[in-house]
Amino acid sequence: xxxxxxxxxxxxxxxxxxLKDMGITExxxxxxxxxxxxxxxxxxxxxxxxxxxxxxAKKSNVDADDVxxxxxxxxxxxxxxxxxxxxxxxxxxxxxxxxxxxxxxxSGPRLPPDRYCLTAPNYRLKSVQKKVTPxxxxxxxxxxxxxxxxxxPATPTLGAPSVQTVTxxxxxxxxxxxxxxxxxxxxxxxxxxxxxxxxxxxxxxxLINPSLIGSKNILITTSMVSxxxxxxxxxxxDDDYDNL
Amino acid sequence: IRLPVFSSAHAHFICKMAAVQGGLxxxxxxxxxxxxxxxxxxxxxxxxxxxxxxxxxxSGVSPGVNKPAAGAAEDQQTLLAVLQFLRKNNLxxxxxxxxxxAGLPEDSLDQKGGDSTGTGLGGPExxxxxxxxxxxxxxxxxxxxxxxxxxxxxxDVNVVLSAYSQQGDxxxxxxxxxxxxxxxxxVLDCHRAELSQVFYPLFVHMYLELVYNNHENxxxxxxxxxxxxxxxxxxxxxxxxxxxxxxxxxRGNETLLDFRTSKxxxxxxxxxxxxxxxxxxERQNNQIWNIIQEHLYIDIFDGMPRSKGQIDAMSGSxxxxxxxxxxxxxxxxxxxxxxxxELPLDDEDEEAENEEGKPKKKKPKKDNMGxxxxxQDPNAPSQTRIPLPELKDxxxxxxxxxxxxxxxxxxxxxxxxxxxxxxxxxxxxxxxxAVDLTDDSSLIAGGFADxxxxxxxxxxxxxxxxxxxxxxxxxxxxxxxxxxRIMDEKTASESKILYGHSGPVYGISFSPDRxxxxxxxxxxxxxxxxxxxxxxxxxxxxxxxxxxDTQFSPHGYYFVSGGHDRVARLWATDxxxxxxxxxxxxxxxxxxxxxxxxxxxVTGSSDRTIRLWDVLNGNCVRIFTGHKGPIHALAFSPNGKxxxxxxxxxxVLLWDIGxxxxxxxxxxxxxxxxxxxxxxxxxxLASGSMDNTVRLWDATKAFDLETDDFTAATGHIHLxxxxxxxxxxxxxxxxxxxxxxxxTRRNLLLAAGGYxx
Lengths: 244, 757
Fold this sequence. Notes:
By secondary structure, chain A is mainly alpha-helical. Chain A has helices at 4-21, 29-56, 64-77, 85-97, 238-242; strands at residues 202-207, 219-224. Helix content of chain A is 32%, strand content 5%. Chain B is 28% helix and 24% strand. Chains A and B meet through helix 4 of A and helix 12, helix 14, helix 19, helix 20 and strand 15 of B.
């Protein structure tokens, strides 16, 4: 048996020869090592799979059929190839028959519906301590959501460290004119204790129109939200988020 | 035996199926005369039987059993097929009776394949006729038998591959090929060049047939003997073929499968074609004739045969040349009319210049650039041909800026070359994979192999993010400089890094209004980034394979992308699925560009063709062949009439889109050309390449030609060898390949590349 280093040397030579045969003349030295690693990984995966198939078929030795099956399964899994041409032609024909959709004028940033965008917040802050106030006082539950629909009044707060639950947007968002509504807490932090009607959270609808250069149609409105207001945010049960 | 239900026209097909599935392969062995490997038990060979006798030299079969054409041929085939079936089932008496009654000659079985396709070849209507004959040959071995012959219904690889299942004796392939070679060598000089075009596709198809039918050694011998004869520009393909020795190797290779199913197009003059046909039909060379029928599409034209030079200029692609009809559709290559824009803001400038403080009369000037004539350009698409976004105020301001800059533009020419400013990306270590600049040259973005996208500001003005929502609430919205106030000064920096992709970023494109940046990556997604917040807004998923290039349309809103799956897709920023799919290429799409009027998209591919697609209905309106390597650079001239393309073969080819012809060739680069750009008024064409040079070419002279009717009708081109005269300058960089070129609005040339010591 050749020593380990000699074996490795032989393998290196084989790989270099393969690269030459395939017409690749310029490559970094690391490439040979990468190719060797790849072949080692590939061959061991195939042989291990083949062993599994052989044992499944209750054979004592691994034979060519097992290896063939292993290769075939791996091909379908890791080394997929793009769809065949006739299939693509068919799909293309269907798609190209539909007329190009008309473009709505003056619609702000033209982006797909929110669920296909990556613009939603992907985090929430867990509440640190449980509230002692009774559950009827829903106002105190802070919220941050992007334009959610609400059925009950709720007080959005953001920034107050103690009682915080930032909810993730889980429901489809209803956007008007594709505006991003971000609710901003009122300046005062007394909302946690005040009753509903008194505490009117200030909510700003920040309309970010990307066409900012030269245009003055940035609409930043501040609207006051009170009970049953048209401004929507999703009201979710506080208890859901305690069981984490 | 399973007998699927067919119309009577397919009766012969039924017989074949029966024979195959009954597994009565061996029954007809007495017909197979020569050394055909009987051990090859695959049912494929049952289909051989019909042909095998004809191909044997010793069979004494008179090949000239010229069956009557058209109508009778079908019936004859049916009878022959029935005869075959009976014979296979050892019903010898019935065979005799049938033969006697039908009046078929003794060895009539041999001619099944040859004559059915003997009629109506070459012209565009060939396909319909060849199907009848080739139906016989496409015996599907797999269980997908009942369906109609070919691969239209199901993307079943077996069906596609099994078209190779008929064949003659493998040992004789070499003989046929040599025979053809000898014939072509003896032919008149003027025809030889044209007929030599046949060698390459024939060689490949014969080789693939041998491989598919498991004649590995014969295939290798065949390859060794004849691969050296092929044209030098097919070497890369041949190398790939060389490593393909077993049937299983063919399975995963989509390009090869596409090559096999699409017909290789050859353009041959009528005289040469007659010569070839006569030769092949009078000899025992029906095998070659069959292959030609099935896999080649011969586009015949009347006129002088082409010279070798002319042929070489146009050939090189994986699918042969382009059929003449492919380039006949009308293309609206004109530009859209510029909208009339008033210039009310001119008074600001005037006031600044006016130091005396005299109140100037505010007179809005009308924009009179570009919309002088009220008439519609007949070659321009109408404004509403495809829906385009309307101009916002900011866009109008941009246009005004553009026009102002245009007045200060330098006129370039052979005696007034542009200055070149080169942006070298240091410490990129070959990781710089894509670069783009905004139209007003204020931002430069680079896509890298470590999956990041970096944006730099070219001007001294730093990059800032928009303030957070909380802060935005507190600013005064009515102030004049609200646009500066919304920017957060704390985030000012020279460059920003955008993270999000999970693979190298291969394509990058700014939107014309500088609000968005697109990047396409090896992970199969295209990401839209906002340049206000420097965050990712959308990930467009559709390609499941690396996306090699993407570009925004010149009017914004639409963008095109092309990748490894051989399909280019047209998207709109507000649709999460593509609007159009441009499918037709045989190999990866490496480069995608919009036409200046946004109505057409051009794609360059690894199959060495360039296709022009219509955005309105997804049709391919032009196919340009001629490059000998994958195409990596495409550029439209600003007037929309011409296209320049660069590939790995180091040549820049110039195309006239209206006529669909090649009009010029610029030789000079020694390595792949990665970037091409026309100057703002089409005077100069700049090309940047891997050989670390930027070359400037005289575009006005290169395109200054008249296309006469003959050229337009036949597609014969006469290229002048004037690359040297057209070359205006060649500028070396210090070991930095040139990846991107950009002319500023004042015709200063900016170039970018990653320093590669």
